[in-house]
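User: Reviewer 2 asked us to show a designed sequence for the structure in our supplementary figure. I'm pasting the structure tokens here. Could you produce the per-position amino acids so we can include them in the response letter?
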């Protein structure tokens, strides 16, 4: 049985964690693979600044550092920022999949230009960073926000009647005004809106979390992982120091 660790980028209780696990319902992977969802211990309140990005990288690195030793065959990161992905790739030999870059690359197999549909504009820096790293600015038709305040714990629960139509309206503007022929959901926290939008939009819309699960499954079966040329191993892995940081953050 293949095992995949999904790192959730915020500390949370079991009820809110179940809302993250619900992303598995959107993809059928069959037997022979299972997914464990693990919240981080170190995290910012939200991902709205460079300071937050540093905390996110450290928190996700700490959460996934022992994944290979614990018997996991791959790691998925449950945030479009791809926080900690490069750091984890440097210390793990198993595949580490981030939804940000993989959603953008998949979009280009489905169309010529994509738009990223976000809930609020303060996430913009997360997308521009990945677009610059991939050199795909010219393939991004737009970064559009629906002007909605996100909740990284309860997600969209109880707000469907307000949020779903607002996201649809913003997505249609991406298509009709910006020229997008593929839409990418700008956050895994938006996954509950995917089915609603997919039924109504005239172009494909990528649900980033389930995409990473499918890619992890494919990487395991194809025996593929990241290149050590691009992700060299550190001289020394800071296992103990990161564990101590995690304990302090968790109040242990």
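Assistant: Here is a per-position design you can include in the supplement:
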């Amino acid at each position: 049985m293949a095992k995949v660790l999904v790192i959730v980028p915020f500390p949370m209780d079991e009820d809110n964690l179940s809302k993250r696990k619900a992303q598995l319902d959107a993809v059928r992977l069959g037997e022979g693979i299972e997914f464990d969802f693990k919240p981080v211990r170190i995290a910012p309140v939200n991902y709205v600044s460079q300071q937050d990005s540093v905390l996110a990288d450290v928190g996700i690195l700490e959460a996934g550092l022992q994944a290979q030793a614990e018997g996991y065959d791959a790691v998925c990161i449950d945030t479009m920022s791809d926080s900690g992905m490069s750091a984890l790739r440097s210390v793990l030999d198993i595949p580490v999949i981030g939804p940000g870059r993989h959603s953008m690359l998949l979009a280009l197999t489905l169309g010529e230009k994509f738009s990223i549909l976000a809930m609020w504009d303060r996430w913009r820096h997360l997308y521009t960073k990945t677009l610059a790293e991939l050199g795909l600015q010219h393939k991004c038709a737009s970064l559009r926000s629906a002007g909605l305040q996100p909740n990284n714990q309860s997600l969209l629960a109880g707000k469907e009647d307000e949020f779903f139509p607002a996201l649809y309206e913003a997505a249609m503007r991406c298509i009709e005004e910006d020229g997008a022929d593929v839409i990418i959901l700008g956050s895994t926290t938006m996954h509950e809106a995917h089915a609603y939008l997919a039924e109504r939009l005239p172009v494909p819309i990528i649900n980033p979390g389930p995409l990473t699960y499918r890619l992890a499954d494919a990487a395991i079966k194809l025996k593929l992982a990241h290149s050590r040329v691009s992700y060299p191993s550190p001289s020394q892995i800071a296992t103990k120091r990161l564990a101590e940081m995690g304990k302090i953050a968790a109040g242990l």
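For the response letter, you might also mention the following. The mean pLDDT is 94. The chain has two domains: 2-99+210-249, 100-207.
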